[in-house]
Hints:
It contains 11 helices and 49 strands. A hairpin with a 4-residue loop joins strand 11 (210-215) and strand 12 (220-223).
Amino acid sequence: MAALRPYLRRRAPIVGLAAVIAASARLSQPKPPAPSLEGLAGMLGAAAGGVVAPSDIAWEPSPGFLAESFFGRRILFLAAPERGKARDLYRARVRVTLGGQPLDVRALRNLTETPLGDDTGLQVRGRIAAFATVAYGKIQGITVLALDGIPARHKPAGLIDRLEVAITSYQDTGSFAGLGRTDVLFEQPVKSAGLRLAGDSLDVELGEERRLVFDPGAETLRADGGQPIAARAVPQVHPHKPLVLWAVDTVRAEVGPAPIAWLENTVFGAEDAVKRTAFRVFSRKSESALKGDPERVVAPTQLDADALAAHAGGWPPAAIPSLWQEVKAGEGEWVPVTLPWLEALPGAPRGNGKPPPYFYRTFIRPDVKRPYSEVELVAMDMRQLELGMQAGFEDPKPLTGPPGDGRLPRDKNILDRVVATFNGAFKTTHGAYGMMVDRRVLLPPVPGAASVVVTSAGDAGLGSWPRTDQIPSDIVSFRQNLDPLVEDGVANPTGRYIWGWQLSGTSVMTQRTALCVTPQGQLFYAWGKEIDGPTLGKALRQAGCSYGIHLDMNPAHCGFVFTDIIDLKARSYTLEKLDPGMQIASDKYLRWSAKDFFYVMVRDPVPRDPSGIRWQPDDGTQPQPDFVPGIFRGSLSIGNLEVALLSFEPGRVDWTVRAGSQEPAEAGGHLELDGDDAHRVLAAIGLGHTTPATRYGLSFGKQVPLPLRSAYATVVVSAGRAPRLIPSGEVPPLADGEQAVQLPLLAENGRLTARAQDHGSMQMRGALCVTPTGRVLVALANHDSSDPLAAALMRAGCQSVVSLDRGSRHAAFVHRTGTERPPVKGYETSVFFALGKPMEPHAFRWAPAGSTPSTKPTGYDYPIRKK
């Protein structure tokens, strides 16, 4: 013992210092929370940097006494940055004493990161958790989590791939097993729903005795009672991901985009320097000789009117002039894509009358410093094609709710018509540019950003988003990225110099893609293997585009694939890349894509409405081009009565009014068609004539022979616009060139009027309406009242309906060119004449009312985020 005292005396200062440090550390720690649910909520809120309500906490099943004692028990909870703000779903491990005292929070992860979406209704039962996400006042989706991990069927087969998934799962969820996830998505977001985990299923109560039942094991969704509900269950699948892409995304999530950008800039910059040097050493001088000033090269859209007249509807596109004295074979010359397996236009004639190919392709060389650099272009005939878009299952990372499907829609009507797929735009971390798919907003729009929109009429528009975050009601989908590459003939109008993250402040040479629209309404897809952003803009200008948007960049993200799908489940399809140099997997967008993409469909010209009518092309003469029908016939049974229907598609005819010879004398002077109109007429629709008792109005612009009266409904027509139907109660002001005719109102706001139910003699009656998309529908039936006609038109999608009788009680008629009853020059009744017009492509330069051209780059390009 005596020998031990000197030993302890020498070490006493060290022991004392350790005791002081331990006591200081213990005193510096926050006071443990109260052993209660409220205390736990406070500790979780502090860990998440926000607030947590006790009712928003749910424990996962215990992993066992020892594991729970040493590592803690997993917990799910909802946390908001401030009280009353949107909540996110978090996951963590919490250690608790036997007495219920919370000790610490570990492995904290934000599972949703949706600052614009409020996660709510969290429930846990066994190994299943469920919650809903609300944004814009509606439920954007309902999410079901499998707490025991990602099912094996949703993982890739390869060992390396599964290791990648495990590491990514740990980053995202705090466990290598990850979380299985299935999102229940509605075709139209719903206002409210009740969630209940019962037994082995999730019940979703939607009111009016409507209920959805989701089986987590089978991942199936079924409706139980009430009206059918348009909803689908989308499981989150983790397919193979190239090792390089996975490594880049994984490192970027930890260190931010700057180091990755430095690496990309170094690699691509070195490749470019080597190639330029080799070209200078080994090429002939004549290969670099320009024709002149490249800024003065005439684009196809600037050719004289006679040259453009040869390209009706902009199809096929006019040849693109070269910048170079030595022109390569095929450079700028459009050639048709005639792959025999591409889907044909539905209902189009065969033989000599068949439509032209809807894809053409060419290449140009727009880089004055790199004569070897080519940009491939695909032209799409938007008379025959339509555009769709889909969000990836990782990107864009939504701020409002569940992610995208990451694959083509499983709707057979869509799959059967898909003829191409191509890449979308940048990741959310590179600017958070907006996206909405089928009216479900994933990212809100960025004012001023270059945008692709798809309207409810199936048209595709390109333009800069107006200075507002409001979404026009006619837009069903949109995607944004950066500033415009070209706008109204000006390449890079905002002067942007960063078109992708580069530390050097210049636009790096790599694969880049773009989408643009021509003044004729056709879309071009562009792919450059080695090009920078400003030069890609010059390429679009050279090709004659009026507006262009930069899409994705870098190998493995860019590609255009011609597509024919026979049976997706059986993997029966034919795929061919535009260029073998494209490094994307050909089936990437068919099965599972991490990033967003576009798909191109053959346009189905048959009208779409909720009536279930089997529309068929009418037998009479069709507007040009006749390989895309524009006038259809059908029928609908209302009780025992068969109502005949005609549909005039928007944009296929112009409408004009002519007064009948039996109208009052003051209406004379507009009795017959003349000039070119007489040769364009495709249909005449009888309206009857007014009487001294009714005095329905009639107007021809500034000439108003019969004054318009607020007691009657008014149909306003003019060249180039869909008719407008204004219900009674107002006298609409008329612009130059507009004509108006007044008629009795049969239905208003979806409800029949008293006039519709008036009974009279049995005779041929007619009714007319205009749908929200601009279709003009005409109904005819032999009956003693007009209410069946109005009912048929409302079932076909109209809210307001007028009678084709201005008071004279003439039998209704429709005379069609090319039939036994063609239109004549003049009638005793007033008539609507439908005048054929060349079909305009379904793509356009989008410029919403009140918007102004962009003059500044949009916001911050690439905010750095760390998990």
